[in-house]
User: Which sequence fits this backbone?
């Protein structure tokens, strides 16, 4: 079943990419959602509409959780649930940058069983199923095994605020940033960067797909307290994230305030 679901997600991601690229660098209409939620564009909504029609049409008994759809509490009673970000990295998309993605996942209970992250402007596909390998454009990926000294973390500036770290001392890591959180998890999964961190609550649609891809690549994937991530929750949020190869993950957790 996860393999059939993965094929469906891959088809949906490719079609989402075709739609998004029709708007990309074409000055699409955009507006702020308010409440510190950031921008949304007509492209986000067009992609979301297509994905919902395609995916729910194919799996009508699955629940639906998407950044651009009103939350339907019935998803909590579904055995499986789609968790979707139609365009992750909307600011980058509107700026004409390549670093936006489509993040598509399926949860069974609280766990992700199939995931695709597709960057259409870069023609790059990451995917995984529970129990299967993590692949980038068909090739297996794995995280970089390294120590914390000099490691590079994909994160925003707030992650290195001293209050988050034992003794008020942030770790000796370099910081990089990419606009799509889903892509950041995949970049850590493939060892392009050493870790992906967030000390802030993360929306499930941003991290559901990337979390499975990173885990199947061999990374340790937890919330910022070291607990396993749980999905299709009422709040649809995970309390931060730490994603890295197991040795580095352990070093990061040892330095974080509990």
Assistant:
């Amino acid at each position: 079943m996860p393999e059939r679901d993965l094929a469906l997600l891959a088809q949906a991601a490719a079609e989402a990419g075709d739609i998004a690229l029709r708007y990309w660098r074409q000055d699409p209409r955009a507006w702020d959602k308010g409440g510190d939620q950031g921008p949304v564009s007509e492209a986000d909504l067009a992609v979301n509409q297509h994905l919902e029609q395609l995916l729910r049409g194919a799996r009508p008994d699955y629940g639906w959780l998407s950044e651009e759809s009103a939350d339907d509490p019935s998803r909590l009673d579904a055995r499986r649930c789609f968790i979707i970000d139609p365009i992750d990295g909307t600011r980058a998309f509107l700026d004409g940058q390549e670093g936006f993605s489509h993040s598509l996942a399926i949860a069974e209970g609280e766990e992700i069983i199939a995931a695709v992250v597709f960057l259409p402007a870069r023609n790059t596909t990451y995917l995984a199923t529970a129990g299967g390998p993590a692949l980038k454009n068909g090739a297996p990926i794995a995280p970089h095994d390294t120590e914390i000294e000099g490691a590079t973390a994909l994160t925003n500036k707030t992650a290195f605020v001293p209050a988050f770290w034992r003794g008020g001392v942030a770790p000796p890591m370099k910081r990089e940033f990419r606009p799509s959180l889903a892509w950041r998890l995949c970049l850590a999964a493939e060892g392009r960067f050493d870790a992906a961190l967030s000390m802030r609550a993360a929306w499930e649609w941003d991290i559901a797909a990337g979390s499975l891809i990173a885990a199947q690549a061999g990374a340790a994937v937890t919330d910022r307290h070291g607990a396993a991530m749980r999905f299709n929750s009422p709040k649809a949020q995970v309390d931060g994230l730490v994603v890295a190869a197991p040795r580095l993950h352990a070093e990061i957790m040892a330095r974080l305030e509990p």
Observations:
- The chain has a mean pLDDT of 97.
- The chain has two domains: 2-140, 152-255.
